[in-house]
Amino acid sequence: MKKVSFILSALAFMAFTNQTIAAPSTSPVSTKASSIVWNAKKVTGEHTGTIGISAGKLVVNKNQITGGNFTIDMKSIVCKDITDPEYNKKFVGHITSGDFFEIEKFPTAQFVISKVAGNQISGNLTIKGITKAISFPAQIAVNNGKVSAKANITIDRTDYNIKYGSKKFFDSIGDKAIFDDFTLAVTLVSE
């Protein structure tokens, strides 16, 4: 009888424990509420614009992001600072060409979270089929199951074989040089 009582107590404890420990939950990223603003600089100025997020998910455990990913639609690149329509079209055509992001061959880029420690996010960023590990601080909030995260990410384009106008590869380029680093201001919001 003691054995049966012990087994029943153990089963009751296990059932209670399983109900009180929340499993990680996965939420899709809202492609409408999420955004990316890019900024790229050159010796003589800078350009800024937006690029869309086409898919993603965030994994949350105990009100903390523990994993996830998002996909960037490279065909959605928009330049916001060039007001002349013809020059704007030419500029976007150039940065989406083989000199830069080669979007016909690589229509998406992706970031996959590998680790979250406090507000530091680490993961793998894939651009043009090349994957590199990156890490950056983020502002993360989880309220009533809804997740929002904001981060400013600096990326060295030459890590992804984007060499056009880089002083690393063209010493005598002078004031036509384009800086290797560009930034992404990323806002992710779950549905």
From TrEMBL:
Domain of life (superkingdom): Bacteria
Name assigned to this protein: YceI family protein
Keyword list, A-Z: Signal
Gene3D superfamilies: Lipid/polyisoprenoid-binding, YceI-like
Cleavable signal peptide: 1-22
Kinase recorded as keyword: no
Keyword Transit peptide: no
Lipid/polyisoprenoid-binding YceI-like domain location: 26-191
